[in-house]
Amino acid sequence: MLSPGLRKFLTHHPEAIAALNAKYEEATQAREISILYEYVDVISPPRALHASIDLTHVVLIVKEGQQPLDELIEIFYELQNSERDEDFQIIFEEAASGSIERGLFPIILLREEFRAYPSTRHFVNSLNLSKRERLKSLACTRYMNCPDEFEAFRTYCWGTNYVENEGYKSYETNYDALRHGTNAINFR
Predict the structure, then answer these.
(1) For the whole model, what pTM was predicted?
(2) pLDDT for 60-108, tens place per residue?
(3) How many CA atoms lie within 13 A of 130 on its CB side?
(4) Interatomic CA distance for residues 10 and 158, integer angstroms
(5) Pairing of the two strands 48-54 and 186-187
(6) 8 Å CB contact between 82 and 113
(7) Paired residues of 57 in beta bridges
């Protein structure tokens, strides 16, 4: 079930309901997807993520309290991302075995994450949003300003000194956990 704020937002945006339903149906063809809300005092990235319990069950974890449009966009993005769980699983298995080096793992993982950006931007463009709604939305701005090329996207996400970026470091931490066999659920 979606949050009350997002449900209210969707009543004013039937085009969003149709697109979200279509994406949800597409994403749930081969597996079950649950949406859970995390209640936090401070909303910080990631605003949503998905965890694969196995290839038949995925959990979307959404931070409660964000703007409804942000919540909608992040859910759409994570549904899109979840459709490539087999690709993510291969990356995680290669990292766990050591076939991928620690310094390359964040880049390979970000490249996989990047694959969902163009369709998410298309989704945002398809919404009949007011200028005010667009300006209030952090996710709308992030996806609309996203570069089309991966190297530019990497700089967009992590800056030029990316090895010091918290997102990059969190991927390295995930890599370390995979190498030591301590990551039971693969978070993306």
Answers:
(1) 0.89
(2) 999 988 999 999 999 999 999 999 988 999 999 999 999 999 999 999 9
(3) 6
(4) 32
(5) antiparallel
(6) no
(7) 32, 54
User: What is the chain written as a DSSP string?
Assistant: ---HHHHHHHHT-HHHHHHHHHHHHHHTSSSEEEEEEE--SS--S-SEEEEEEETTEEEEEEETTS-HHHHHHHHHHHHHHHTTHHHHHHHHHHHHHTSS-TTTHHHHHHHHHHTTHHHHHHHHHHS---HHHHHH-HHHHHHHT--SSHHHHHHHHH-SSGGGSHHHHHHHHHHHHHHTT--SSEE-
pLDDT tens digits for range 99-157:
999 999 999 999 999 999 999 999 999 999 999 999 999 999 999 999 999 999 999 98
Q: Are 184 and 98 in contact (CB under 8 A)?
A: no
**Tokens, residue 17:** 């309901």
